[in-house]
Design goal:
Proline-, glutamic acid- and leucine-rich protein 1-like isoform X1; ARM-type_fold; nucleus; mainly alpha; RIX1_N
Length: 253
């Protein structure tokens, strides 16, 4: 197993498709976990994590590193996750700052999985809250990205808000502005991650005594939503009263 891994990962003669087929086989047989066919020694696991780390830092090999991490993450032990997760999160955050869509798409997906598991490890969660999340939220809400990346960015942002609500509090206004800026870009896309982020906004920051701050934030957001709905309805009825009609297909008057 290790010999095959070394040959494929180090050789430039193998295409990315072949490497991906290899990784699919790794996933099918749970090769990294040792549950089915293979039992990898600690040295072999160390070599895999080293390969991931080096590839994530090398632009030419970054996609291979992401694909390898994608398969490895679901099979690694808790001990391996504890040793490497913050390093992975940092590397993935840096990838989100570049302009190449494919690595960013993979990075968002993998980073969301890493963030999802971090609360299970309190010490890692605290370190991530202070060292990873602030810069990550700034990147997600500030770095210009093409529209096809917005769903992935929102998915990653929703995991930040859900798993690290307190640290996200300082960026609450920035997050809200980012969401409102992109509302009109979901006309032909799935809005679930955008809706999730918007729903999580009131829970960002400290909750106060018995959650009073969060409760007040929920009321404020509900008032805003109702105000927007009333404004839209007033606009529709005003046009109708002036002889216009509503186009149910295109959403226009």
């Amino acid at each position: 197993m290790l010999g095959l891994f070394d040959v494929i990962s180090s050789s430039e003669t193998y295409s990315l498709d072949l490497k991906y087929q290899y990784l699919e086989a790794v996933d099918t047989f749970q090769s990294f976990s040792g549950q089915v066919c293979f039992t990898m020694s600690s040295k072999n696991i160390e070599n895999v994590t080293k390969e991931i780390k080096e590839n994530l830092k090398t632009p030419e090999k970054r996609t291979h590193g992401l694909l390898l991490l994608q398969k490895f993450l679901g099979q690694c032990s808790s001990e391996v996750f504890m040793e490497n997760s913050l390093s992975w999160a940092h590397s993935l955050s840096l990838i989100l700052k570049n302009n190449c869509i494919e690595p960013k798409h993979l990075a968002c997906s993998i980073l969301s999985r890493v963030l999802e598991h971090l609360p299970s490890f309190p010490e890692l969660w605290r370190e991530a809250a202070g060292r990873i999340i602030p810069s990550l939220v700034e990147t997600l809400t500030h770095t210009p990205s093409p529209e096809e990346m917005l769903d992935d960015l929102m998915m990653c942002l929703s995991h930040c808000m859900l798993k690290f609500p307190g640290p996200c509090g300082q960026f609450k206004n920035r997050i809200e502005l980012f969401l409102l800026t992109h509302f009109d870009k979901w006309k032909f896309r799935s809005p679930e991650h955008l809706a999730m982020c918007f729903a999580l906004l009131p829970s960002c920051g400290g909750g106060g005594n018995q959650g009073k701050i969060h409760a007040a934030a929920w009321l404020e957001q509900m008032d805003k939503l109702l105000g927007v709905m009333h404004s839209i309805l007033d606009s529709l009825y005003e046009q109708l009263e002036n002889g216009g009609f509503f186009d149910t297909i295109n959403g226009n008057l």
